Amino acid sequence: MASHAPSTYVQPASTNPFVRTVQIISTVAGWASASMILGAVILTCQMIFVRFVLNGSTVWQTEIVVYLVIAATLVGLPFVQCQRGHVNVDLIPMALRARARFSLACLTLCGSIIITAVMLFFGYEYWHFALSRGWTSDTVTAVPLWIPYLSLPIGFGLLLLQLFADLVALLTKSETPFGLEA
Hints:
With about 180 residues, this protein is an all-alpha fold. It has helices at about 15-50, 60-75, 75-80, 90-95, 100-130, 145-150, 150-170.
């Protein structure tokens, strides 16, 4: 049996204005995420140079690198969803007929939307607590924690938006369930 999915998925440009706009937003989030990863790599290299070449101490670099990598992961979620980059086991969808595959795709997206909405709610609540109570990290740099925690509502909010766009694309038949042909 031939493989149904290409090795790399390229999200087709949608004709639906809402879906297309969300795809653009998700792409911008992907670039922001990549920039954060690049910043973390550069900062790690600087930290290694300071420690082992200059024999100096690094006070703030490790903390900032951790915040950048976590933020990159969260902000990059919608881009990965848009590109179908998440791990996907399509054994069950491939075994189903077109109508059942469509129903399973709708059920999966609705479940993902519910879970992501819950994560968005609690992520916003956590960020808001940090902001309103003036939480700072317990380090020398004392980073105001609302800054790194902001990636929670932004990341989950953008992922929720992308999931809604995926559902719209599925319901309007501009995308096939699980990217599989009938």
